[in-house]
Amino acid sequence: xxxRTATLAGLDELALRIQKLKGGAHGLVIGVHETPASLESxxxxxLEWASQHFTITSLxxxxxxxxxxxxxxxxxxxxxxxxxxGRESNYAVAARLLESFGGRGVFFVVPAFAECAPGESLSFxxxxxxxxxxxGDEKWEDWKPxxxxxxxxxxxxxxxxxxxxxxxxxxxxxxxxxLEREIGDSARKLAAxxxxxxxxxxxxxxxxxxxxxxxxxxxxxxxxxxxxxxxAIDSRLDSPALLWRREIEVKYSPAEYRFxxxxxxxxxxxxxxxxxxxMLRVSQDANVG
Length: 289
Ligand SMILES: [Zn+2]
Known about the structure:
By secondary structure, the protein is an alpha/beta fold. The protein has helices at 2-8, 11-21, 40-53, 59-67, 88-100, 111-114, 121-129, 140-143, 148-156, 176-194, 212-221, 254-262, 270-288; strands spanning 26-32, 55-56, 78-85, 106-109, 160-163, 200-202, 224-226, 233-234, 246-247.
């Protein structure tokens, strides 16, 4: 209802125009899950639309927001596509599509999922990745992981492989050894597979499924930390150590995704962003002191 009203009123177009005026310091990160072949043309249409309003980039390109914020001043804001959990449908569909738009994705992989034997991945998916999944509803695109050699190939094609914990673990209240295993061991495994540094991390489940202790460990291993909390990124205010992402799935209708890209939902997330920023500040202060 809200989406329809906003669309009819042209509010989403208006908000996009405002966003564009803000210039080169701004970027947007999109979070996606499964990308089934049956929705490939729908995803292509979404990317086509996104490319008219944003520059579809890579993690390296996005990092330029902090390196030389003035470089992209005249161009459209950057948009970075990220994919959670490491599904084979991302390897088969999303990577190639993004490449055709001149972009590269960030694929947040769960090593224990990638290493599942063919008969184990559905139960891993139900137990660890999506506990709300209803047996019978799942399609293979939901639960089939990409394997380590597909992950290595994506990295070689210029995509970034990010860490999404070793076993898709919630990171609140864990003991130091557990954090080291879920974050550090996972990062080492991904670096061994890709033969590249693993710069990006995304925590699992909700915006509050992380605490300051987990953060310190994340920061020790990764430059970029992506949250499941919506917001536009302003490199003058935001740090790579805490980035916002808007979840926009490939199955969403044009009215839904246009509304979400416009950023009209962001104010609704502002309290959560503030709470996460406070947590970061606390953990950084603790590092200093
Ligand atoms: Zn996940």
